[in-house]
Amino acid sequence: MGMVGGGRGAFIGAVHRMAARLDGEIELVAGCFSSDPAKSKLSGADFFLDPARVYGTYEEMARAEAALPPDQRIDFVSIVTRNNTHFAVAKTFLEAGFHVVCDKPLCFTRKEGLKLREVVRRTGRVFALTHNYTGYPMVKEAREWVRAGKLGRIIKVVAEYPQGYAIAALETARDGAISNWRMDPQVAGVSNCMGDIGTHAHNLVRYITGLEVEEICAELSTFIPGRPLDDDGNCLVRFSGGAKGIIYASQVSNGDENNLNIRVYGTKGGLEWHQENPNELVFKRADTPPAISRRGNGYLSAAAQANTRTPFAHPEGFIEAFANVYRAAGTAIADAVAGRKPPKAGYDFPTIEDGLAGMAFIETVVKSSKAGAKWVKWPRD
Amino acid sequence: MGMVGGGRGAFIGAVHRMAARLDGEIELVAGCFSSDPAKSKLSGADFFLDPARVYGTYEEMARAEAALPPDQRIDFVSIVTRNNTHFAVAKTFLEAGFHVVCDKPLCFTRKEGLKLREVVRRTGRVFALTHNYTGYPMVKEAREWVRAGKLGRIIKVVAEYPQGYAIAALETARDGAISNWRMDPQVAGVSNCMGDIGTHAHNLVRYITGLEVEEICAELSTFIPGRPLDDDGNCLVRFSGGAKGIIYASQVSNGDENNLNIRVYGTKGGLEWHQENPNELVFKRADTPPAISRRGNGYLSAAAQANTRTPFAHPEGFIEAFANVYRAAGTAIADAVAGRKPPKAGYDFPTIEDGLAGMAFIETVVKSSKAGAKWVKWPRD
Amino acid sequence: MGMVGGGRGAFIGAVHRMAARLDGEIELVAGCFSSDPAKSKLSGADFFLDPARVYGTYEEMARAEAALPPDQRIDFVSIVTRNNTHFAVAKTFLEAGFHVVCDKPLCFTRKEGLKLREVVRRTGRVFALTHNYTGYPMVKEAREWVRAGKLGRIIKVVAEYPQGYAIAALETARDGAISNWRMDPQVAGVSNCMGDIGTHAHNLVRYITGLEVEEICAELSTFIPGRPLDDDGNCLVRFSGGAKGIIYASQVSNGDENNLNIRVYGTKGGLEWHQENPNELVFKRADTPPAISRRGNGYLSAAAQANTRTPFAHPEGFIEAFANVYRAAGTAIADAVAGRKPPKAGYDFPTIEDGLAGMAFIETVVKSSKAGAKWVKWPRD
Amino acid sequence: MGMVGGGRGAFIGAVHRMAARLDGEIELVAGCFSSDPAKSKLSGADFFLDPARVYGTYEEMARAEAALPPDQRIDFVSIVTRNNTHFAVAKTFLEAGFHVVCDKPLCFTRKEGLKLREVVRRTGRVFALTHNYTGYPMVKEAREWVRAGKLGRIIKVVAEYPQGYAIAALETARDGAISNWRMDPQVAGVSNCMGDIGTHAHNLVRYITGLEVEEICAELSTFIPGRPLDDDGNCLVRFSGGAKGIIYASQVSNGDENNLNIRVYGTKGGLEWHQENPNELVFKRADTPPAISRRGNGYLSAAAQANTRTPFAHPEGFIEAFANVYRAAGTAIADAVAGRKPPKAGYDFPTIEDGLAGMAFIETVVKSSKAGAKWVKWPRD
Predict the structure, then answer these.
(1) Which of C197, C276, C297, C326 to mutate to test the interface with B (most CBs of B within 10 A)?
(2) Distance from CA of B309 to the nearest CA of A (A)
(3) SS3 sequence, C59-105?
(4) 3-state class of C194 per DSSP?
(5) Which of C18, C257, C319 sits opposite B294 (nearest CB)?
(6) D 156-175 residues with CB < 8 A to C
(7) What is the ipTM of this complex?
(8) Which chains touch A (3 or more CB pairs under 8 A)?
(9) Which tens digits make up the pLDDT trace of B73-99?
(10) Residue B73 to chain C, least CA–CA distance (Å)
C-alpha cells in the first residue's frame, strides 16, 4: 500500500501502519507523508522505504505509481490527512485506478461526500473508511445478536462518547497542538467534537442496530472559551421504526479518557459494550442473570471469531480492531486485484455509505443546534 | 411515630419501617395501614402494635392521637400511601400538630404541592420527603466535593436511571400488580416513569450540584402498548449558569435493575457515582489517576462520615441510606419537640422545597413532551 | 433480648443491636454492657432501657432475669464481649435457662469450646454464633449451587481475606485502640489475624462447599514489630475427598479494606463471590459466558430469596447479612420458647459445631506454623 | 529474523510473528517452521518467504544462513518449538553466530539451562526469553513504583494464575490437541501447569518486586485422571529479606480464562494488576483512596510511556506487550550488529538469567511437592 499523510509524529498515521502491517499481508511501499517534501522524505526513511517512492505531492505519487508496472505499483492508498483534503486526495487516487482506505470523517462537507460517492461508483474501486470501533470482535458479536433477534425489537439506544482531554487544554494549554486543527473550521469542517467522535458513536449505533436516524434534536456547546467549534454535544434521536435514543459526545468531560459506550435495549433483551473494556459484551434481560460474553471463546458467532487473533483473555485492543478494518478492506482489494468475485455475504468494512451517514450526522446536529436545539429531519438523498 | 399506608405486602412501607427502626431511636406505635380497616388491624398486629392505636382511617388517627397526652402520642407520621392521597393526609396531620415524613413524589400536582407548602409554613411543623438516594454517604461526599470547589465550575451533568422491570410485564404480565397504580393517571398523576424515578435522578442532580434547571426539552415515550402513561423519558437540560445536562429514566431498559448513575463534570475535575455500587465515589481529572473514595474511611468529609454505621468495606446499602433520611428528620423533629433551636448548618434531609422541585420537574417534562419535545422554561413561583 | 458487652463506642455491639432490631421482631430490654457498672448504666440509658434491667455484672443479670416471670424476662442473651470471656458468660446464661447468640470466635481455646458444647447439649438451649458473612443472600445462593450439583465435584477452593488496617497502626499508631486487645494473647487467644478473620474465611468455605479440612500447612507471620501475635497467615489446605485449597488472611495488606473473597472450582463449573460487592455471585464454566446472579431476583434459590429484604439492585449490605443470622436464630428461639418443633430442614444459622470448627482451625494453623509450616492433621474429637 | 517452529496452526508462532512485525522494524525472512520439511515449505509460502530460505531442518538453516553475506542473512532467530528442543536449537544458532529470541520455559531441565548460559556467555550473543507478561506497560509501571520506594519495604506478595481450559478437556476431550504435548513429560519436562504458567506468575513477581525466592513449599496436583503431569499447583513462598508470598497456578479452575493477577503489599502501600484488564494498575494504601493509574497517561513513568503505542483508553493488549519484548530485544540486537555500546540503563527484556530462575522455580516446586509439600531451598549455583 501507499500512504498520504501520517508522517513523523502523526498519531493516526502510525496506527494505520501498525494496523495494516499486523497480519503480514499488507506492506507499505510508497507514500507522500507530508505536504512538506523534506519531511515526507525523512518519514519515508523512517519507514525503510525506497526513496524513489517517497513523493513530495500526492498528485505526483498517484501519477508515478500509476506509471509503474501493475505488479510493482501500490494496490491501494491509505489517506490519513486532515478532513479538508480527503476529497481531493481520494478522488485523485480513485481516478488513477487505485483502491482507497480513508480515515474518517469522510470529507469536509456532505456535498463533497456525495460527489465522492459518484467517483467511487464510476471508478468501481474499493473504498473503505476506517470507522475502527466497529472492528472490535465484540461489536461484531453485538451486531450478530441484533440480527439474530436475540434482543427482539430495539426500542432504546444510548450511545455516549465522553472524553476530557480538551479540558486540560483549558488549564495547561499543553494540548494545544493536538486539538488545534480539529478546532479550525477551515480544516475540520462545521464541527469539532461531533465530527471527530460523535460520528464514531453514531456509526457504532448504526453498525450494531441497523437503525437509521429519522430526526435529531441536538444541542452543541463550546465550553472552552475562544474556540470556534463545539467541544460537547447532546442529542435526542428518533429512529425509523419508533426506537428512541440518546447520543452524546464530549471532549470536556473532565477525567474521561476514551469512554465510548453503547447500550441497546430491545423487547427481548439488552446489550452493553464499553470500548475501554472491549473484550466483553454484556447480555441482560429481566429475570435472567446478566451474561458476559468474552472475546476468543467458542460460543461466539463466526463473525466475532473471525476477527480475533489470540485466545480468550489474552486481551486484544485498539490496534487489533483497527487491523480488522484493514484486513477486511485488504481482502476486498485483493479480490478486486485478482478479479475474484466478492463473497455472497459481502465484506465487513465501513464504506462510502457509512461515510455519508457520518456527514449527514454532522450536518444534521449542527443544523439542529444552530436552530436552538430543534428537531431536524435526516437528509434523504 | 405513626404510619399511614404500608400495610401487609407493601414494599415501601416495610422499607420505611426498617429505616426508621435501624438506629433504635424511632419506634412505630400507631398506624392506619390500609384504607381497609380490617387489613389495617391485621397489619398492626404484625407490627406488635397496641390494637387501640391501629386506626381505620387516617382522619380518625390524627384526631385520636392528637387527643392523647403529649408524652404518649406520636411525634410524627410517616406517609407511605399512593401519590394522590399525600396532600390530604399530610395536611390533616400537619394541621393536627404533627410533624410529617412523606414518601415521594410530593403529591398529585404541583398546584397541590404549592398549597401544601402553605400548610407547612403556617403550621411550622417539620416536613421531610424521602428522596432516599441522597441519604447515601457517598452522595453526601459528592455534594461536599462540589461545595468545596473540588470540581471547579460545573459544566456538564449526566444522570441516568434505567430500569427494565416493566418490560417483563410486557412478556409475562406477572408484574402487573406492581406497576398497576403507577400507570393509572388517577392515582399516579401525569407521569409514571418520570414521576416515579425521573424525579429521583433530578433530585440527585440538584442535591449534588446545587444547580437549578432553567429549561428542559423532554421526550417521553410509552413503549408498552395499552399503558396510559410514559414508561421512558429522555431530557436535554439547560441549567442556570450555563451548565448542560442529560437526564433520562426508563422502565423498559431490558435487563437493567435499578441503575441510577450520575456523572458531574467541572472545570477542575469530574465525579461519578453508581447507586448499584453505592459505597464508592470516583474522582477523575485529566492527567491524574482516577481515585476511588470509599465509604467508611477517615479521609472522607464529616458529612459522609456522619452518615455511616459500619467500618470501610462492610458494605452499606439502600436501607442504611433510607435510614439516614429518617435519622436527619428524626433529629429535627426531636429538636422541635424539645424546643431546641436547629443547628446553624441546618438539617440534611429533603424538604417541601425539594418536593416542589420534583413536581416542577414532572410537570415541565410532560409539558415539553406533549409539545413535541420543545424547550420549556422551569416554572418560577 | 439481653446483651453482655457492647457498651458505648464498641463497634460490634452496635452492629449486633442494629442487626437484631432490623426486622422489628427482637427488642433489647436488658443488658450488662461493660465490666464497669457505671459505664454499663450509661450505655443502658443510651439504649432507652429500664435502668432496673441494666446490670453491673453478667452473673447478676443472669440471676435477676431468670427470677423474672417468663413473659417478662429476656428470651436470649447476645454476647459481644472479648474472646476470653465468651465461655464463662455463655455457660452462665445457658445454665440459667437462656438461649444464647454469641460473637465469634467461639471462645478462648478449643478445649473450652468442647466443654461449652457439653453445656449446650445438656441444657438443650439454642446456641447461635454470629459468623455473619454466611448471612449474605448470595452466599446462601452459592451453597445452594454446590448442594444442587451445579459445580460438580469440588476440586479447588481459594478463600482470601486481606485487610490492611494494621499497617496503618505501624505508621500512625492511631489504630492502637482498635487493634489492642486482639493482639493480646491473654484476651484474644493463640492467634490474632487467623482467629479474627481467618476463621471467617474458613467458615465461608465450609458453609458454601460443605468440605471439611483434613490437613493444613500454615505459615503465620508477624510483620508489625513488637506484636505478640500473628498479623498475617497463609495456608495450604487438603480437604476430605481430595479437594485442595488456599486460605489466607492478613491485616497488613496495605490498602485492602475488608476484602474477603472466595472462589470455588468444580468439575462442572466455578463460582466467585466478593464480600465488598456482596449482591453479586458469579457462575463460570469453560465454554459458557460467565453469568452474574444478582440478589433480589426471582431466578434465585428459595434460600437466597428468603434472606432478602429489598428488590434487586436496592443494595443490601453487612447489617442486613448480620440480621439474617439474628432472624434465623430468633426463629429457632421463638420456636423453642413456644414449644414448636423445628422445621424439618432445620434452621440456617451457625451453631456450636461451626464454632468448634473455627477453634480447630485456629489451633491447627498455629500448631502448623509453630512447627515451621508443616502439615498438621485436623483434630478429630 | 528467522524462525524455528511456529508453522501453520501453531498459536504461539503466529503471536511471535505479529509481535515482531508490529513496529515495522523486524522482518521475517527465513525459517524452519516444522520438523516436517513439507509443512515447513507450506508455512513459508503462507508468510510470503523466498522458498530458498525456508529450510527442512534447523541445522541446515543455521548453516545456510551463516553462509550468506552479513547484510543478507538473518540477524537473529526466534525459537518457538517445544520445550525439549529449545536447548539444541538455541545452542546451534548461538554457535553459528546468531542472536536468539526464545519462547519460555528456557529449556527442558535446569541443568540444560546452566549449559545454555555457558554458551550465551561464551558466544556473547543476545539471548532474550519471551516472558511476555512483563512487556505490559503497567507492569513496567509497577516495577518503577517498587524501585522508587512507593510501596516501602515489600512484605507480602500474592500471584495467581488460574485457567480453566483443561477442565473442558475432561468433559469434552476437544482440547486434547492443545494440551497434549504439555502433558507429555518427554516433551514438556517435569511439570505441565507450573512450567507453562506457574513460571509466568513467578517471573512477574521477580520482575515487579525484585525479590528472589528463598524457600518454597508446593503442592502440585493432577485432577484430570490419566495425566502424567500436574494441572494445578499451590505454593507458599519465603523470599529473601523476609517477605512472604503465595504463588498458585491452575488449568482446572473451571471458567477462568487467563486470569493472571498480582498483588504486592509493602509498608507504605500496595499495588494490584490484572492481566485480563492490563491497562490499569491500582495503588492502595491505608487512609487514602485507591488510585487507578491508566496506560497512556503523562503521569506514568518513562518506562511505562516508552512501552506504549496508543493514547490513553485506546486499549492495548497481549500482542502489544509481546511486541515490547521483541522491540527491546531488537534494539539490543541492532546495537550488537551495529557495534554500538549498550545504554547505561541496560535493556528491558527477559534474559537467560530469568530463564534459569524459571527453571529453578519449576524444579523446586516439583521437588517440594514430591516430598509431600515440604519446604525446599532455592538452588544456588
Answers:
(1) C276
(2) 31
(3) HHHHHHHHHCCCCCCCCEEEECCCHHHHHHHHHHHHHCCCEEEECCC
(4) helix
(5) C257
(6) 156, 158, 160, 162, 164-165, 167-168, 170-172
(7) 0.95
(8) B, C, D
(9) 999 999 999 999 999 999 999 999 999
(10) 18
A268 contact B CB<8A: yes
Kindly report, residue by residue over C196-254, the tens digit of the pLDDT.
999 999 999 999 999 999 999 999 999 988 889 999 999 999 999 999 999 999 999 99
How near does any CA of chain C get to the CA of D204, in Å? 19
Which residue's C-alpha cell is 478494518? A325
Cα angle D191-D195-D196, degrees, rounded to a multiple of 5? 120
Best mutation target, D139, D163, D307, D314, to test chain A (most A CBs within 10 A):
D314
Under an 8 A CB cutoff, do C298 and A291 touch?
no
Q: Give C94→chain B minimum CA distance, Å.
A: 27
- Give how far the C-alpha of residue B22 lies from the chain's centroid of Cα atoms, to the nearest Å: 18
Classified as helix, coil or strand, C111 is helix
Cα separation, D268 vs C164, in Å, equals 11
CA distance A306 to B315: 43
Residue ranges of chain A whose pLDDT lies below 50: 171, 173-178
DSSP E strands in chain C: the ranges are 2-4, 30-32, 76-79, 99-102, 127-129, 154-162, 213-221, 232-239, 244-250, 261-266, 270-274, 280-285, 288-294, 375-377
* Residue B294 with chain D: CB contacts under 8 Å: 289-290
Chain D positions touching C236 (Cβ under 8 A) are 217, 219, 234, 236, 373
Q: Does C177 touch chain A (CB under 8 A)?
A: no
Q: Pick the residue from chain B with its C-alpha nearest to D289.
A: B293
Residue A255 touches chain D, beta carbons under 8 Å: no
Per-residue pLDDT of chain C (381 residues; tens, 9 = 90+): 999 999 988 889 999 999 999 999 999 999 999 989 999 999 999 999 999 999 999 999 999 999 999 999 999 999 999 999 999 999 999 999 999 999 999 999 999 999 999 999 999 999 999 999 999 999 999 999 999 999 999 999 999 999 999 886 654 544 444 456 888 899 989 999 999 999 999 999 999 999 999 999 999 999 988 889 999 999 999 999 999 999 999 999 999 999 999 999 999 999 999 999 999 999 999 989 999 999 999 999 999 999 999 999 999 999 999 999 999 999 999 999 999 999 999 999 999 999 999 999 999 999 999 999 999 999 987
Tell me how far apart the alpha carbons of residues B127 and B114 are, in angstroms, rounded to a whole number.
14
- Taking the Cβ of residue D155 and every Cβ of chain C, the question of whether any pair is shorter than 8 Å is answered with yes
Burial of D222 (0-12, 13-18, 19+ CB in 10 A): middle
Provide φ and ψ at C256, rounded to 5°.
-80, 150
Please report, as a single letter, which amino acid is at residue D127.
Answer: F
Give residue for cell 448471612.
Answer: C135
Cβ burial, residue A343 (10 Å; 0-12/13-18/19+): exposed
Torsion sign (Cα): B20, B23, B25, B29: positive
**Which cell is A326 given?**
484493514
- Contact yes or no for C23/C327 (Cβ under 8 A): yes
Q: Is A118 on the interface with D (CB under 8 A)?
A: no
- Give me Rg for the CA atoms of chain A: 21
Distance, in Å, from the CA atom of D201 to the CA atom of D210, rounded to the nearest integer, reads: 13
The answer to whether C328 touches C349, Cβ cutoff 8 Å, is yes
Best mutation target among B174, B319, B324 (most C Cβ atoms within 10 Å) is: B319
Q: How far apart are CA A336 and CA B8, in angstroms?
A: 73
A244 to B252: CB separation less than 8 angstroms, yes or no = no
Q: What is the number of H-type helices and E-type strands within chain C?
A: 14, 14
